């Protein structure tokens, strides 16, 4: 990162350079493997439940076992692989390290929820010869980006008998898809074109088209023949009643696969990079570790996009619970005071995406202090916005350890904030983790078109993020 010059009196300048230039042929081969695996993951895992199930299945094959089943108060051998799942919405994977828990743990935390369209509790209605689902969007989105694109429905339900039903419509070849309509340009001048951008499509206009054919078994003079046809198809195909829908969890997400972007295939476009790119990068790093120095773990949390509340979010006691359980598994029986000491000695990477500079909208950014696609891992010394509101500011002593690690591992890095001081900003789970007296730093993957249905990241940044997470969890830094 430091540009050296042989002339004796010249100064040394600092500039983040292209991460691609650091790749050796061996690195390129590993990058290709990591990115191929990620493309498969991000195309399949479009909901929180699906992500937890996917990670759990991969982890079980790799030898991870549920932590409570291994025995309370039992000291586990270094290299033992453990797993903890919370309410099927959050998951932790850990490997017991060589060093005692009193020296602290090494954690990478990410969130597995992403912006999407959720279906309301009483969704189905008929109007103007069409059947629709009413919705309530989840997380920060530009609502106009979600109309006129193909959507798939991901449904999880428990019927009256207690039987669970889980199915996806719109992802397989030959499946029907769903969509949200938009007004034709010919009719939009008064109704839509004069609206402010955030009102171009309102929340109550995000209604999903789900049917159009009348039910042949309903009398032709009776209302709701199209709605009845939808109900009949749902019952026939999936065994759910209209009442079951009210008790179900239904998500609408873009029905598209991840893809390589550009003539050179150096970018990946997909729905859900924020923050499942960090989830799978952290999982991949964990899967490449045998026996770490310190007990290491990855923690994938829920509800970050809506404030990190609830039992699976970063505001809960889940982080502290997991650290305490891992400390006990590392040392055997451990006291409350010892557990608190472990927590204060633990170091954490908050792995999240952040909005990197976009050449189409460069005026929203500070070019000297922004992340760029293809320049490596993105370190945020502080987050928040205007006056550092809602900020986490990492300790310089912790950053010094990260600096040493990146230099020794030859990992390209860059610094930056999310946009101009009075124009951009945002937060991650980092500040909530720090509230537990834990040292934490934001280590981001730069992303263009953040929170859109098709976000963009660089393969190089993804690859080096895996390497950074791996080095942090494996070695003594």
List keywords for this structure.
globular, seven-stranded antiparallel β-sheet, 21 strands, 11 helices
Distance between the termini: 20 Å
- Report the radius of gyration as a whole number of Å: 24 Å
**Mean pLDDT score:** 93
Number of strands: 21
Which segments are poorly predicted (pLDDT under 50) over 5 or more consecutive residues?
Answer: none
Overall form? globular
For the biggest sheet, the summary is: 9 strands, mixed
* Percent in helix: 25-40%
Largest beta sheet: strand ordering: 3-4-5-16-6-17-20-18-19
| Helix-strand makeup class | alpha+beta
Helix count equals: 11
How much strand content do the residues show? Answer: 15-25%
Verbal overview:
The chain has helices at 25-44, 48-61, 188-191, 225-238, 242-246, 273-287, 318-331, 336-345, 396-409, 430-434, 459-474; strands at residues 2-3, 13-14, 65-66, 81-86, 90-95, 106-111, 116-127, 130-138, 151-158, 164-169, 179-180, 208-211, 249-254, 259-261, 267-270, 296-301, 347-355, 377-380, 413-415, 439-447, 455-458. The chain is α+β, with helices and mostly antiparallel strands and 477 residues long. It has a 9-stranded mixed sheet with strand order 3-4-5-16-6-17-20-18-19, with helices on both faces. The protein has a 7-stranded antiparallel sheet with strand order 10-9-13-7-8-12-11. Strand 7 and strand 8 form a beta hairpin. Helix 6 crosses helix 11 (459-474), helix 7 (318-331) packs across helix 8 and helix 9 packs across helix 11 (459-474). 43% of the residues are buried. The mean pLDDT is 93.
